[in-house]
Amino acid sequence: CNHCLRGCDDEKVDFPLALFKDLCKQGKKLGHNDVCLTGGEPCFHPDFEEMIDYLYMNDHTFIIISNGSTIDRYKFIEEYDLSKMMFGVSLDGATAKVHDTNRARGSFDKVMKTLAYLRKKGYRRRMFSTIGKHNKNDIEGIMKIAKEYDVKDMSMPSVINNGPNSSLVLSVKEKHECKDKIAELYGKYGVSVRIP
Length: 196
What we know:
Shape: globular
Strand content: 5-15%
């Protein structure tokens, strides 16, 4: 995605499973039980199913942050206890025209199908919307979709300049205007929004 802070090196390097398990053990010893699986797209990790097994077997709670385009790869999770996990889905626009601007063409429709699936199955869910010049006028539409799909919690950080995405970065004034808009819309839609 154009606004992402993660680099896309030509060489594919997956996070080592042994290191993942070790960090989870260390975190647990320090009183941290929550794990966040993000990416790219976490389900493409070759050991993804084993990671999920490990988290359940060791009584971790966790969130999987997904771009929402690959829900079929997550269906194996249905056999697990849903109370230990949450899905985070990225939605950057209330229409395909806006959302797909910085993501793959057709991804908006996939995200809508994913949100419907997660609601139907009863998964706890959160939406992540990165706000920039491309979608600052779509905030209300995004929050309306959150309410429509019973998403109670959102995160709406603004685009952070990584060089290539500088045209998407909001000015300080625009950031304040967006924060004010989000606060105003909370009463209308009842969706809690974190603005990191």
